[in-house]
Amino acid sequence: MRKTIIAMLLALAAFPAVAATEHPCLLLTRSGVSTIKASLGTVPMFDASVAELLSNADAALGREVCVPVPKDGGGGYTHEKHKLNYFDMYNCGVAWQLTGKKEYALKVKEILMAYAELYPTLGYHGLGLSGTPGRLFWQTLNESVWLVHTSQAYDCIWDTLTKKERKYLETTLFRPYADFVMNGTEDNRANQRMFNTLNNHATWANTAVGMIAMVMGDRELLEKALYGTDLSGERGFIRQLDVLISPDGYFNEGAYYQRYAIWPFVMFAQCLDHNRPDLGIFSYRDGIILKAVDTLLQMAYDGVFMRFNDALEKGYTAQELISAVDIAYNADKADKQLLSVARDYQHKVVVTDAGYAVAKAIRDGEAEPLKLRSCVLRDGGDGTRGAVAVLRPAREDLDAAILFKATSHGLSHGHYDRLNFAYYDSGNEVVTDYGASRFLNIEAKYKGHYTRENKTYAQSTIAHNTLVADCRNQFGGKMAVAEESHPEITGSALGGSVQMVSAREDKAYPGIVMERFLFYAEVPFLQYPLIMDLLRATSDSPHTYDYPVHYNGHMISLSVPYTRAMDTMHALGTSDGYQHLWVEAEAAGGRGKTTYTWLTGRKMYSLSTATTPSTKVFLARTGAADPDFNLRSEPMYLIRESSAGNHLFASCLETHGKYDIDIEQSDNLESSCTAVEILENDPGCISVFFGFAGDKALTLTVWPAGEKVLYEINYDN
Amino acid sequence: MRKTIIAMLLALAAFPAVAATEHPCLLLTRSGVSTIKASLGTVPMFDASVAELLSNADAALGREVCVPVPKDGGGGYTHEKHKLNYFDMYNCGVAWQLTGKKEYALKVKEILMAYAELYPTLGYHGLGLSGTPGRLFWQTLNESVWLVHTSQAYDCIWDTLTKKERKYLETTLFRPYADFVMNGTEDNRANQRMFNTLNNHATWANTAVGMIAMVMGDRELLEKALYGTDLSGERGFIRQLDVLISPDGYFNEGAYYQRYAIWPFVMFAQCLDHNRPDLGIFSYRDGIILKAVDTLLQMAYDGVFMRFNDALEKGYTAQELISAVDIAYNADKADKQLLSVARDYQHKVVVTDAGYAVAKAIRDGEAEPLKLRSCVLRDGGDGTRGAVAVLRPAREDLDAAILFKATSHGLSHGHYDRLNFAYYDSGNEVVTDYGASRFLNIEAKYKGHYTRENKTYAQSTIAHNTLVADCRNQFGGKMAVAEESHPEITGSALGGSVQMVSAREDKAYPGIVMERFLFYAEVPFLQYPLIMDLLRATSDSPHTYDYPVHYNGHMISLSVPYTRAMDTMHALGTSDGYQHLWVEAEAAGGRGKTTYTWLTGRKMYSLSTATTPSTKVFLARTGAADPDFNLRSEPMYLIRESSAGNHLFASCLETHGKYDIDIEQSDNLESSCTAVEILENDPGCISVFFGFAGDKALTLTVWPAGEKVLYEINYDN
């Protein structure tokens, strides 16, 4: 790896970079503009995107220039205004290039001049909420995003400015701005430390500085963006590509932040491809940038990113993905499935060379269907820190996915949820992950930041579908401890009629080994594939083990009698997330097995778990200990085994039934599982019998002890 | 009215009905089949519907004939099997007509013969759940539906049967079956009473008997279906058209049951139009059947029927609506907007003459957009029993609707919700109506019937957005009392920039006069139209008045400090629906006004109400006293005024903000209402001042006392 960088540095010395001699030169190029202008009116999706951009640019023309003294946090007036300003400048800049209407260029200039006046007067933002505070915004991250957009606007109107004007803007605004993002201030080097770190905020900072460097033709500044302020290559954009993305294209904070992280990666890469083709950036590390785009697309269900770690509902339509899909296609025009993402989900492209290429290929009928596949996506720069797995049905008529999470912690956005899983079917979340507790941009909700309950509930172990021991968070809820280790994927089988993935985790709870074996199998006598879940805890000392299943839908039946909270309801516990759960009902487990059925959309889902009458069963709902109504009200099913050393939670989850409300027809609405019996639970062998209606049965046997997990399913029908 | 009937009877005597001499003769006719067969492969939507029908017919061919002894209720095995059988017969019958493949006809015959063997052995259904029990099904209603489908199947294969076979089937099955539906049995005349009643079950029974009569060419039977068993015209299908549908095309049980009721009306009418064109059925009573179809389409939002009274989620895609739209268009080909309902929502047609006409017109590009309008739909056969009103925005860029309910009770499916309202916007229910508590066809949930909680909660007054006095249901929750009276619409203004509707109700609570004035107004300084709601209670004696607002979305802020249930939560009351509400938080009202803001989809909704510190405010959620988990968990906001004789709840509901998660831009997320002040509240005049940010204001003045409510809005901006 080090060798590659040195080779690059040498290459760099041997082939001096071309300073931009023509503008625009970033995502939109001068030759791109020529092609685009010649084709206006002939490429429908591009025309529509141009029309939208022009309409936004026209709206910007109608606004008085206003560059307020920074004051507010996310969602607040000055924050949103500075965001709007960079969108306005960007839109007007591109509009000028496409239409040649002078007023667009003048509007950009006018706003830039206002910033050039304001900027030198600013100290750090007053809010003091971030360890890396900005000037225009409360955190430097937003400062970088401003520069990424504004660089493009400046690039677009470059030719309209006099040399003197450019010098003024660069001296007063852009160089000090870039220097602040890169170095912070003499009395506070937080930004410099951040610029030289290897994380997503740093990627943004590198990209912002690199882009304005290319516009200004500042070779040295660009080198710092690429290789760190000390030019060592130990940090900077290129090193980020080595470290932040796994060999399978996975970014270690999860899909939601990979969506955000991908944006500077693809934008900077596109600009480098235009200005520094010698770097061959899209081929770097076996095409890691393109791989990261593909991986991100794979971690979605129905175009929405699967929710794990801190995550809100975002998907293919997010602005970052529109850029990513356009740029990835432009870099590798053989990947025609990207076109269907643009056509079927995004319905728009970015008004750049890349966006034009996408829209034109769609017009020419080149789109191919997006192929979603089962996959194991390794975590860690070298791919050794666990993985997230996605299982998808082999049958083409089904629309389902299972997510299994056995990655490393995922930095500050990670959740304490090792060996968690989620299930999606027929367009719905079925077994759910709460995701993040945050009301992005909503000032009234903790100023749009992550709420307190994000830490106390959303990140807690009980908020997930995995083992909780002794009602405590994994790793005691300590991120530093969680970051030290990672689970191991112990087996996987993808793509056939029996798919599986398994993992082992022995650090989450000291003295307890957790193993989970998740199967997704076509069963000849069942309507839909069966999920079988073996979750095992092994310990020398007794523990209380909780097996929570969060679901979306309405309770239909529980196979055992239960006591319902009628006029008074209490919280399930007092800490580690349990304080946030209302106990709606409790029950003793059934002799043999307990089955819980719920309705989601037009199908039934039945979870049958091996239990005994000493098993406790709870139906709970989020919302307790939530003084500010930050939590969504969501239901959960919980199975508890007390005073156990070793315990195997053996379950199957049936998808069944047809519930057609339009013609009022229904069938197969009841679970057909009649028995779940643990035949064997030894270190070297687990064997579970699942019985079904009509004297059907299957036995699942797993041998977990070898190099790789072995398994067998025997049918009895 | 009586005159019309007599004229008809005379007409009837003068022009003897043509007994069907050719088959099929019901919804599908012999000449229709010829046209259809000649056009197969040229009308895409029809071809797709034929393909679906043939695929269902082929599935039926693959099934063993099984006609089980009736045992189960809705959702249970025998119930669903007998339903499947009539669908199978129907599909195979039509398939035979279209393809001429003998096996389809044979399958129908085989199933019919099995029924002919089973039927004579049956007594009343064993379940004993209905006052009008059936034989194949637990209630005669389903018995009628079976006959409606099976008549068509029999009609389709008529020509393939020998005279002897037909005689056998008619003697053993169809005549006894029709007789049972029409007359019941000697020891139980419940069915006869029902057949001669004027309600929806009777419409089904009339239709079923009428259809089999037409197939068998039985003139007398058809007369009984049309004019009652005594042929008086005081009952029977024609009389239903006079009584059950209001002059505005409204069926008094509400949209959900109008959907169900419309089906026999349109089917029987279509068959009559084919066999008894002399009746001019589609012109009867000024085209009342077509008007009822149009009215039903108007009572929907985003293609889903607005939920009031007992209602589940159903809409334009329901099988009944597909029939209704096809038949209505076939009867009046000038109504081209029906075509867009079929094209944009239903995506299918019925495989009949009417369905073919629709599909062909769509292919020929004749569809026109569905025009949804503001309307007041009068209730009652003569239109004097109140009304339901729908207000829709005048601005074309908005997608919103307000429902205001001031109808009569609506028989057994009515709710105690006089002067209730609901609000829909941007594709979401915003201010919601719970609808019905029922899990249709789901055996595990009270056998698919209305749950106990339907009566104890869903029908209760507190489950709605209207006045509750002294925490009691309107009319003491007694249907018989509620049926005696109806509210009065006192004013309305539709379609302009200020729309309104108002009503008065003085029987719901003895000694209390309720008045509600609901405005929907474009306000120059607000982003979206403002809803203003004046709900007034007038009484000589003190009462506790509750003003509940059920909403869909997430709590964002309440303008006053509140106490949140943290680790224990209690029910709000002990009866009349209050026992089902958990108190999540309580507060004292603000001095002047209290504002509550929630987020639904990508917009904010803020309700500001005039309050004082002695006002009580509750945030509550359904789910208490619900032993079987029959209730959905839904939030509600409640304002309570205690010890008041006269009280005016004066509120405005702002729709505001843009919350674009894709590009993380937001603005106008906070309520701009700064004041709600009641200036005057006299019998003859109500005047309320609404203040808004930026020193804007408006004053709404209403003069409710005259013949018709007068009003004025004065802006101060």
List keywords for this structure.
homodimer; 717 residues; alpha+beta; eight-stranded antiparallel beta sheet; 18 helices; 34% helix; elongated
Instruction: Tell me the major beta sheet of chain A.
Output: 8 strands, antiparallel
Mean pLDDT of chain A: 95
State the end-to-end distance of chain A. Answer: 55 Å
* CATH architecture descriptor of the domain at 375-716 in chain A: Distorted Sandwich
**Number of DSSP E strands of chain A:** 28
What portion of residues of chain A belong to β-strands? 15-25%
Strand order of the largest sheet of chain A: 9-10-11-12-22-19-18-14
Q: In CATH's first tier, which class of the domain at 375-716 in chain A applies?
A: Mainly Beta
Uncertain spans of chain A: 9-18
What is the helix fraction of residues of chain A, given as a range? 25-40%
Shape of chain A: elongated
Largest interface: A-B, 59 and 59 residues
Class by helix and strand content of chain A?
alpha+beta
Rg over C-alpha atoms of chain A, rounded to the nearest angstrom: 27 Å
> At the third CATH level, what is the topology name of the domain at 375-716 in chain A?
Beta-galactosidase, Chain A, domain 5
Please tell me about this protein's structure.
2 copies of one chain form a homodimer. With 717 residues, chain A is of the alpha+beta class. The first copy, chain A, has a domain at 375-716: Beta-galactosidase, Chain A, domain 5 (Distorted Sandwich). Chain A contains 18 helices and 28 strands. In chain A, strands 9-10-11-12-22-19-18-14 form an 8-stranded antiparallel sheet, with no helix packed on it. A 6-stranded antiparallel sheet of chain A has the order 8-13-21-20-17-15, with no helix packed on it. In chain A, strands 3-4-5-6-7 form a 5-stranded antiparallel sheet, with no helix packed on it. In chain A, α14 runs antiparallel to α15. The N and C termini of chain A lie far apart (55 Å). The model of chain A is unreliable at 9-18 (pLDDT under 50). At the A-B interface, α4, β14, β16, β17 and β24 of A face α4, β14, β16, β17 and β24 of B. β16 of chain A pairs antiparallel with β16 (568-570) of chain B.
